[in-house]
Design a protein that fits this description.
CATH topology: Rossmann fold
Number of helices: 11
Structural class: alpha/beta
Distance between the termini: 11 Å
Number of domains: 1
Number of strands: 6
Helix content: 40-55%
Length: about 250
């Protein structure tokens, strides 16, 4: 559902657009155990999907956990990535930098510590998940219900629980990203500070930041027309129209 406003527009513009559910989401497999949700495992899933589609390299667009996966895919498998579109998630190295120097950024990420606990986060999401989604984007009641019906809470929360187990592996995946990167950034992004967008040159050779006024965390929903316009412009700026693959989290 995350990309339902973009897929038809991209198709009409002449692109082949694929929007998979990451493992643990929607109709994708939901393996048991926390280790199955380490980012390196999800990156491997997306890499296999891209290879199966052929016509590589592709343009990757990601939001939320899909954006994290997109960052690491571009670092781990640069042969698969022609361009990168990231929505509302800073480069992982910038997140680590801000956590090391900003108390405010630490506070904004405290919810992730709660989501790593056993049992309680599932109960919390059953009680308050719909309310959180309403605050994160301009969703109708029908859209909120449709999202909630697709939730598999334990697999979704296992992404957070896997983070401490992944740090060593993810650090080894770090490398400079040399493909063009466009970051779409909501001015009402609730989790990450604007300072996470500073000094990205150490990790990204060619980065463009587009700020989207008035949008919340789900920028591709709240500002769909502007996001679609920017996507198509960024895609057509390549020498030839590449396929587009979207990650969702």
């Amino acid at each position: 559902m995350t990309w339902k406003e973009s897929l038809p527009v991209l198709a009409r513009a002449g692109f082949r657009a694929v929007a998979p559910d990451l493992r643990g989401y929607g109709d994708s497999p939901k393996p048991r155990g926390v280790d199955a949700y380490q980012i390196s495992e999800v990156v491997a899933d997306v890499a296999k999907l891209i290879e199966s589609l052929g016509n590589v390299p592709v343009v990757i667009a990601g939001h939320d956990w899909g954006a994290i996966v997109a960052w690491y895919l571009a670092m781990a498998r640069p042969d698969l990535v022609r361009k990168l579109v990231i929505m509302n998630v800073p480069h992982p190295a910038a997140i680590a930098r801000e956590l090391g120097r900003s108390t405010k950024q630490k506070i904004r990420l405290l919810y992730q510590l709660f989501f790593r606990l056993p049992v309680l986060p599932e109960l919390f999401m059953r009680l308050f998940g719909r309310a959180l989604l309403r605050r994160a984007g301009r969703f109708t009641s029908e859209e909120v219900d449709a999202y909630a019906k697709q939730w598999s809470l334990t697999p979704m929360l296992n992404y957070y629980r896997a983070v401490p187990r992944s740090r060593g592996t993810l650090k080894k995946m770090f490398r400079r990203i040399d493909v063009p990167v466009m970051i779409l950034w909501s001015e009402r992004e609730p989790v990450f500070l604007d300072s996470t967008l500073e000094d990205l040159g150490a990790w990204v050779t060619d980065v463009r930041i587009e700020r989207i006024p008035g949008a919340g965390h789900f920028v591709q929903h709240d500002a769909r027309e502007r996001v679609n316009e920017l996507l198509i412009e960024f895609l057509w700026s390549a020498e030839a129209a590449p396929p587009l693959s979207n990650g969702r989290g």
